């Protein structure tokens, strides 16, 4: 009887707390859940990554976006979120809130979240890698070091201000069985102009005969783009 009473009191406390949180969302107030914050970077004009909603309850899900001054930019439901883009560069706070009921099953360890925060850095540019137009200065041959050879890839550069920009931190790594190839950008810092630019990587390392390999490009946001070499290595 005592256990049931304690359980009832716990439920009453939680429902009271959720009611206050729900009321706060109905007003133009910035909500936060400290200690549960993540930071991501995206290009301007991109949709927000779906990972922001991962682990959240689905009932009455609201995504609140505010700028770095605390002004609310938009409030979205899950459907609106999937198509929403941010066109103005800057730093934003994305707060996700759900009013789902808590499952008190003692055997259940994983519970959906009620609140989650992300800091989103919207970069003032956008890069589009043309994987279909990658060119090697010479063919990949098993066991032969690719020293003094290059890989070139066209990259479309879009600027929010329509101006050129200096970027760095492009990286290239080979992956696959015994693929030791790495690529170093021909210039440590590249000045990219609006439109199509060519990135040239100087290669070193080798691949193994009889394997299929791929290459991972790391862009300045830290995201990985994969290129699958179309032919088996001879």
Please outline what is shown here.
The protein has 234 residues and is mostly beta strands.
Round the Cα radius of gyration to an integer and report it.
24 Å
The averaged pLDDT comes out at 82
Runs with pLDDT <50, length 5+? 2-36
Oligomer: single chain
Key features?
234 residues; mainly beta; Immunoglobulin-like; 2 domains; five-stranded mixed sheet; disordered N terminus
Describe the structure.
The chain has 234 residues and is mostly beta strands. It folds into two domains: 2-123, Immunoglobulin-like (Sandwich), CATH 2.60.40; 127-228, Sandwich (Immunoglobulin-like), CATH 2.60.40. Helix content is 12%, strand content 38%. It contains two helices and 15 strands. It has helices at 2-25, 78-81; strands at 37-43, 62-67, 72-76, 90-97, 115-123, 125-129, 135-136, 149-159, 165-167, 171-175, 182-185, 190-192, 195-204, 214-218, 224-228. The strands form three sheets. Strands 6, 7, 8, 10, 11, 13, 14 and 15 form an eight-stranded antiparallel β-sheet that branches. The longest helix is centred in the N-terminal third of the chain and has 24 residues, at 2-25.
């Amino acid at each position: 009887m005592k256990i049931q009473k304690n359980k009832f009191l716990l439920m009453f406390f939680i429902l009271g707390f959720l009611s206050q949180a729900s009321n706060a969302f109905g007003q133009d107030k910035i909500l936060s859940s400290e200690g549960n914050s993540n930071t991501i970077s995206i290009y301007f004009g991109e949709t927000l990554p779906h990972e922001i909603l991962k682990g959240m309850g689905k009932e009455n899900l609201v995504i609140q976006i505010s700028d770095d001054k605390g002004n609310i930019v938009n409030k979205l439901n899950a459907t609106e979120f999937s198509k929403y883009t941010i066109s103005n560069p800057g730093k934003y706070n994305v707060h996700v809130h759900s009013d789902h009921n808590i499952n008190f099953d003692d055997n259940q360890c994983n519970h959906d979240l009620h609140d989650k925060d992300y800091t989103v850095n919207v970069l003032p540019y956008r890069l589009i890698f043309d994987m279909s137009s990658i060119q090697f200065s010479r063919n990949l041959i098993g066991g032969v070091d690719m020293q003094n050879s290059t890989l070139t890839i066209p990259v479309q550069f879009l600027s929010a201000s329509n101006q050129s920009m200096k970027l760095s931190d492009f990286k290239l790594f080979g992956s696959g069985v015994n693929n030791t190839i790495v690529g170093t950008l021909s210039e440590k810092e590249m000045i990219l102009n609006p439109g199509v630019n060519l990135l040239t990587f100087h290669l070193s390392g080798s691949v193994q005969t009889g394997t299929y390999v791929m290459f991972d490009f790391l862009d300045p946001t830290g995201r990985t783009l994969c290129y699958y070499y179309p032919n088996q290595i001879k």
